[in-house]
Design brief:
- By secondary structure, the chain is of the alpha+beta class.
- The chain folds into two domains: 4-80, Arc Repressor Mutant, subunit A (Orthogonal Bundle), CATH 1.10.10; 87-137, 2-Layer Sandwich (Dna Ligase, domain 1).
- Helices cover 42% and strands 18% of the residues.
- The protein has helices at residues 4-11, 18-29, 36-42, 50-63, 106-116, 132-137; strands at residues 34-35, 66-70, 76-80, 87-91, 97-100, 126-129.
- A three-stranded antiparallel sheet has the order 1-3-2. The protein has a three-stranded mixed sheet with strand order 5-4-6, with no helix packed on it.
- Strand 2 and strand 3 (76-80) form a beta hairpin.
- The radius of gyration is 17 Å and the shape is globular.
- Bound molecules: zinc ion (ZN) (3 copies).
- One zinc ion is lined by residues 85, 87, 103, 105, 123.
């Protein structure tokens, strides 16, 4: 097994297992952030129990190899950390998720810092609406 996922795991100091490679491979090709449960179901062949998937995902996220994503419900999702700070917009009808590369909330954060005295302000924002396909249907 020598591919980019093996190199990535080694680079981040993780033991290389078939299951871990599969998790990373699946995440990179996902069209939207995935929950541990979804990954576990899709990777039934990798013979990893849900707890192991969950543990691996959290270790990967702590190391910065993947990113945690919140989409406004109770589930923690994960995505391949291919790019830096960005946001997501979720369709109210079909659940489709699109990436929003643009973020101009820094000015607001500075404003909040000035007004509240808070420092090191971060934000977790999820946008939602009707995607193009769903809007066209109605
Ligand atoms: Zn939709
Ligand atoms: Zn994303
Ligand atoms: Zn932002």
């Amino acid at each position: 097994m020598t591919n980019k996922y093996v190199s990535l795991l080694r680079q981040y100091g993780f033991k290389v297992t078939h299951a871990r490679v599969k998790v990373l491979e699946r995440l990179e090709h996902a069209t939207k952030p995935m929950t541990a449960q979804e990954l576990h179901e899709e990777l039934a062949d990798a013979k990893m129990d849900l707890a192991t998937v969950y543990r691996s995902l959290n270790k990967f996220a702590d190391a910065g190899l993947i990113a945690r994503v919140q989409l406004g419900d109770e589930f923690m999702r994960f995505e391949f950390a291919k790019h830096s700070h960005h946001h997501h917009i979720v369709c109210n009808s079909c659940g489709k998720v699109s990436e929003i590369e643009l973020c101009n909330l820094d000015a607001l954060s500075q404003d909040i810092a000035q007004k509240t005295g808070f420092r090191n302000i971060t934000h977790h924002v999820v946008f939602s609406g009707d995607c193009q396909d769903c809007a066209n249907k109605s």
